[in-house]
Design goal:
Length: about 200
């Protein structure tokens, strides 16, 4: 039952917003009593912590699945961007991370500490992969480019209220990041991915 509550709460938080969803809403959606929810979660904040943890686990499982396909580095990044777009397409118009930072800053900080570690390692692996494939330049300072990119991505999510706008700017950030690193061969692959992504949008 605990896992089912977390799953339903996660869906509602992403769809309607962390602030607006109440314990009554979750109980009503599940046709259970509020007392049942409080049996597992002493307050809404604890449920939000568990829900965000579950969503991030699911996100990184999907990322690992995409990475395991052994696509080229640029294709890999675009597949992951498409996954995020699909995962959050039914979300409230307000970006989930923006809401979390505004209404539950302590939970947000905990999420970000973990997320930055995870993303830093993924970005680093992707850059090394692209360099080996001759899609990214060999002379890159990998640590600097990793820091540039995650600073861009997290700044967008923290400061852009609209989820749709955040996704649009993130795509532009990915293009910017890729162009800054790409070889002529990488630019050709980037243009191919951009055309495919926009066609599927």
């Amino acid at each position: 039952m605990k896992d089912k509550i977390i799953q339903k709460a996660s869906e509602l938080f992403l769809k309607l917003g962390f602030k607006s969803v109440t314990m009554d809403d979750i109980a009503g959606e599940m046709c259970i009593s509020k007392k049942t929810i409080y049996k597992y979660f002493c307050n809404k904040e604890v449920l939000i912590e568990e829900s965000t943890s579950m969503v991030h686990k699911q996100v990184h499982e999907v990322i690992d699945t995409i990475v395991a396909k052994n696509l080229n580095a640029i294709d890999e990044n675009f597949q992951i961007r498409e996954m995020f777009r699909d995962m959050f397409k039914n979300s409230t118009d307000t970006s989930p991370l923006y809401q979390l930072k505004k209404h539950y800053p302590e939970i947000y900080q905990n999420v970000m500490t973990y997320e930055i570690d995870q993303c830093t390692q993924y970005f680093r692996d992707n850059i090394h992969k692209g360099m080996n494939e001759n899609l990214y330049r060999k002379d890159l300072n990998v640590d600097v480019y990793v820091k540039f990119y995650y600073t861009l991505v997290f700044h967008i999510n923290e400061n852009t209220m609209s989820e749709r706008e955040a996704q649009k700017i993130e795509l532009e950030a990915l293009e910017y990041h890729t162009r800054a690193m790409a070889t002529p061969e990488g630019i050709l692959e980037l243009e191919k991915q951009l055309k495919k992504f926009i066609t599927n949008y």
